[in-house]
Specification:
The protein folds into 3 domains: 33 residues, no CATH class; 36 residues; 166 residues, 3-Layer(aba) Sandwich (Rossmann fold). It has a 5-stranded parallel beta sheet. The protein starts with 8 loop residues before the first helix and ends with a helix. Strand 2, helix 8 and strand 3 form a beta-alpha-beta unit. By secondary structure, the chain is an alpha/beta fold. Helices cover 55% and strands 7% of the residues. Helix 6 runs parallel beside helix 8.
Length: 262
């Protein structure tokens, strides 16, 4: 993006004098340096926090805005007394998934690897489930795969990538990457798995079905895979929300599954 700035009067004169003195090669270079210095002085994390709390921005939007990692920004929010709305927020967020294609955004990919749910994705892939992300998430997946290898784990290699063009209004406080995920799901008729509560709301407002990644756990229960308690606890430790009544509902699937098999 190119931004044009009109500078005149004494400011222009001083900038041109800096160029004449050889301190900067061009006026544009001097302006870029001034902007960089300004941004170093601005508390982007504080602005992002207020965008999230007061303006309803998605967590992925504020992470993109600050340039912080998800880990760092989650820690910052918690230090400010706010737990981000990552995970399950309402009953409609947690379902049993049918085999088929599912689109993941960047935050959800991060949660999948951090909570070990990427292993559940590998297992479900053998049963006809596909997991797709926008091409813009590929770099994040490569980083997360490298961390797995460093921990002595096998490469998961479960995420496919497709190109998607985001379409969002300036008033939509969602990141370009998550807008790409929603656009991909909408254009292909796929379901979105997102652990950003506000991304799910954004997707549903555009006619896209959207559920939490925790639905993978309930899906494993439904097919008789047990135990899944480790997935539950690692998911909650992200930290991702899984309210107690929903946790009891999820664990209650065990009785139904066992009853059906009896």
């Amino acid at each position: 993006m190119v931004v044009s700035v009109e500078i005149s009067g004494i400011l222009e004169e001083r900038l041109r004098r800096l160029v004449d003195l050889g301190i900067y090669a061009t006026v544009a270079e001097a302006v870029r340096e001034a902007v960089r210095d300004f941004l170093r002085k601005v508390d982007l994390k504080d602005i992002a926090f207020n965008l999230y709390v007061s303006r309803g921005a998605s967590f992925q939007y504020v992470a993109e805005f600050t340039g912080e990692t998800f880990d760092a920004l989650i820690d910052y929010f918690i230090s400010r007394g706010v737990i981000p709305l990552i995970g399950v927020s309402t009953r409609e967020d947690l379902v049993i998934l049918e085999p088929g294609p599912y689109v993941l955004d960047g935050l959800t990919v991060y949660v999948a690897y951090k909570a070990g749910l990427v292993d559940a994705m590998v297992e479900l892939r053998e049963l006809g489930y596909r997991f797709i992300a926008p091409r813009s998430v590929e770099g994040l997946v490569e980083l997360l795969e490298a961390k797995r290898l460093a921990q002595g784990l096998l490469e998961a290699g479960v995420v496919e990538f497709m190109q998607a063009k985001p379409s969002r209004a300036p008033s939509d406080l969602v990141s370009a990457q998550e807008a790409s995920a929603v656009a991909l799901a909408r254009s292909r008729g796929f379901v979105l798995l997102s652990d950003d509560s506000r991304t799910r709301g954004y997707a549903r407002s555009r006619g896209v079905r959207a559920y939490s990644l925790a639905s993978l756990i309930s899906t494993l229960w439904s097919i008789g895979r047990e135990p899944v308690e480790d997935y539950v606890y690692s998911y909650k430790s992200v930290p991702a929300l899984l309210p107690e009544e929903m946790l009891r509902s999820l664990m209650g699937l065990e009785e139904r599954v066992r009853g059906e098999r009896a």
